[in-house]
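Weekly structure sync, notes
Attendees: PL (lead), two postdocs, one rotation student
Agenda item 3: pending single-chain targets
PL asked that the sequence for the first pending target be pasted directly into the notes so everyone works from the same version. It is reproduced below exactly as submitted, 650 residues in total.
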Amino acid sequence: MMKKLLHFFILLCMTTGIASSCKESGLDRSLSQAGNNRKELEAVLRHYRNAPLKLQAARFLIENMDAHYGFGGEAVEKYYHAMDSIFRHGKGDRTYWNRQYDSILAQVGTGLDSCMSVPLFDIEHIKADFLIAHIDSAFAVWNRNWNRQYSFDMFLRYVLPYRIGHEGLSLWRGEYPLPQEEEEDYERNTFNTNFVYGVAHATFLGMQPWIYYANRELPDFPLGQLKHIKAAICREYAHLNVASFRAQGIPATVDFTPQWGNRAMGHEWCVFFINNETAIPFEMGQPVGCHFMKRKEDRLPKVFRETFEIQTNSLFMQDKGKESLPRIFNTPYLIDVTNQYIETSDVEVDLYPMETNQSSGYAYLAVFDNQTWKIVHWAKISRGKALFTDMGRDIVYLPVYYMEDKIIPAGDAFLINAQGEKEILKPDTTKTNTIKVKRKYRDIKANNFLRDIAGGKFQVAKRKDFSDSVTLYIIPRLNDNCFQDIRPQEKGKYKYFRYLPPNGSRGNMAELYTFDEKGDTLHPIHFMGNSLSLPEHDMKTLADGDVLTYYEAENAENIWYGWEYSHPINISRIIFLPRNDDNFIREGETYELFYWNHNGWFSLGKQKGNFESELAFSNAPLHALFWLHNHDKGTEERIFTYENERQIWR
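Predicted structure, written out during the meeting:
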């Protein structure tokens, strides 16, 4: 992104020196940067010379237009057209939409790379007619009876802007009419917060978003096209929500976390304002208030708000083009709003000295993303220290420098615990112990699956209707989601076998095998059950060797499933695996345990996985941060500490 905004920096420094060495106003600066497009911007100002509020709105847009840009070119337009066509006419599930995306990107992918290397800055390309049409359309929904609760400043910042991200420009407001059932209330209500909630519910509650995870950067969809999307990244759904709110005069924007604090990826979502201060997070398909903040398993290290207005406190503006910046901070349009979401702590960090050939005025904090560290915040360096403000708690951080698109460790890793205290994670290599590991990734989902089978029963019978059933085993509350090996005490020959899940469970079992006294696998002659299974989740998945496939019934009450053998037989062994995430130790796969020390990961050796799903590594230093890596497959891997003979996921 630094190359994309280099042009902006050059113009900014040539015309204003970041407004520090001359007296030009923001409007003068923007007009100077516009070059041959200046006449278009001046035409907008002339158009509104007798309309004071609209003139103020035009000035606001032009003064803050400097670094806003989109992408154009044949490949981008082809991508927009092809995706819009399938969104309007296609129907299907996530698999269908993934195929459509993959097919279209295979056709235009290389061309997209070329087009997206050359941003089209609004200041140089936007036309007077377009800007006038957008200003007029924004004012058409402004100052109605019900939305007079908002100030004009809120209107300028969060209703007026013609773009949200880097999407292709379009006249989009008319694409988002108010829901019909709300039209009468739209004019009648005054200072009605409930009306704002009602619009959110009426517009989005019934929508089902499918998420497409692209393996490359894609141009943002034009806002007018978003109303038809069926699958996209979370950013596009956030843009759709924001555009819908703004089209109805409701202030809204995008908040995002650059990286979750305890799992992979980041996230973007819409926030709308119920007054001039209070922002309400909102996501597609969820009732207002049912947001990820209520999920205790997901931790936020930082949250930033996207604005149209240039923020003088942003790193982009503080730096003034002197250094190469991480991508997330290479924009003047960010506000730190972390403390509006969670309890935070300020933390001062002692920094390692830089190499003699390196220099920087900034240090950064990074969090772990499966296999790498990702930057989430910045701070100025002062006398070998950096003070990072409003950091999320119960998260491990690593201080880093950013040099030539690379991150370099800049201090000891540390945990900000749930109480807001800093705990340095510095390994003591003079004191070691043996640690036992059972998984490579946090086990929240895996534990949920275990709860769904607790109390389930394996039964046998001589009669097909199981009226004479005998219970071989009742599943207790298990601690680890991995293969379970059961040796029933019941001795007798039976022709029928079944699994009877506890009430409320859909029978989520991934693998299920029975064996005779010789240790041979018993094969059913046909399957039985009292409930239909969901498509692709039938009983054949129970012995397909794929631990990620599983049986799932259509309902969750009084179900059972099993099979008939060719003749009565004594079952001496049962092996089963609950529905799982395939992050437990797998037999035959190669694992390597690392610990973090000073500036990198140090290996404690490799081992092959076993059926018991537990590996022991000796000579592990105390007080260390660990990472277990599977060399054979998978992407979900999580750092952990080791306390009281347990992996504590971080």
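Discussion points:
- The chain has 14 helices and 32 strands.
- Residues 469 and 615 are 39 Å apart (CA to CA).
Action: rotation student to compare against the earlier draft before next sync.
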